[in-house]
Amino acid sequence: MVMSSIQDLPAENISFTIFKLNGFYSLGEWRRFLFIPYFFMFVLSTVSNSILIYLIITQRALHSPMFVLIGLMAVVDLFMPIFFVPNMLLSFLFDWNKISLVNCLMQIFFIQYVGAYQSTLLMWMSLDRFFAICRPLSYHNYTQTSNFLKFIIGPVIRNTLLNVSVVSLAGKLNFCMKNEIDHCFCEHMGLVQLACGDTSTNNLLGLATALLIATTDFVFITISYVIIFASVMKSGKSSMKAINTCITHIIVITFSLVFALTAFFSYRIRNNFSPNSRIFISTMYVLFPSCFNPVIYGIRTKEIRQQFLKFFNHVKVLPQ
User: Fold this and answer.
1) What is the spatial distance between Cα 35 and Cα 32, in angstroms, rounded to a whole number?
2) 184: closest CA among 104, 128, 125, 106?
3) Which regions in the chain score pLDDT beneath 50?
4) Interstrand relation of 18-21 and 180-181 (parallel, antiparallel or unpaired)
5) Three-state DSSP class for residue 199
6) Cα distances (Å, whole numbers) of residue 156 to 149, 160, 162, 252, 284
7) DSSP state at residue 23
8) How far apart are CA 231 and CA 284, in angstroms?
9) What pTM does this model have?
10) What's the CA gap between 7 and 5, in Å, rounded?
């Protein structure tokens, strides 16, 4: 009697509060084997970023602004996978795929908010290189806390307000279509697509957030590096050593941008991606930079590489 009365209710009066994350379920029994590569990548991300953070905190030679920013990037790369990979691994092994609306919204917020600082930190790094190479005489003034805060406060307020608005607006929707999200973690558009009623505001705000955060940051990054390379070309080979760090940042930016744009547009424009391909791209957008960034910084940055070799040799000597 109760069930029949629920079924008779209009769809807009029903709103699901528990959702199922059905990412990769079409793989059947093969889905469990995904635990192995994702677990390996999670361990690599956790260990490599933890070592990088430890080195930057403990070694005085790595206390300059550039390395502090690299350390902050490692913090972002460390925490990004923690918000979804453990649950995803448990889902692969034990089919624990249910998540409440509150936890889903929290997951969206933390992934998007922390992820926003990937592009913002890359922008701050490009500004640091700009002052170091193009304005060396004013570099010391730039690194003072009072001046550096001018470049921090604006992006932090922007990232916070936009992501709080996106998640708050999504939380006000009624989810009456179905309660199955074809993903391994809660993604904004994946959740909004389940809502009944008009979601155009949510779509526009999600698009505006991407444009005002990632796109704006990458515009500033591009302008900074164009000016830097123009300055180096004029000065000759004397600044080529300094620009090596810029090349490292550009490698990181390129990989981050490719994954971010592919993941973003795979949900917003028509394409031939299969659901599994779309999910894989989204998980790699979050997980791959977390594994790749500390490795590329460690290999290409001489000072970090030297400190890591000292740390590694010290660890080897300890058991003896």
Assistant:
1) 6
2) 104
3) 1-9
4) parallel
5) coil
6) 10, 6, 10, 21, 25
7) T
8) 35
9) 0.86
10) 5
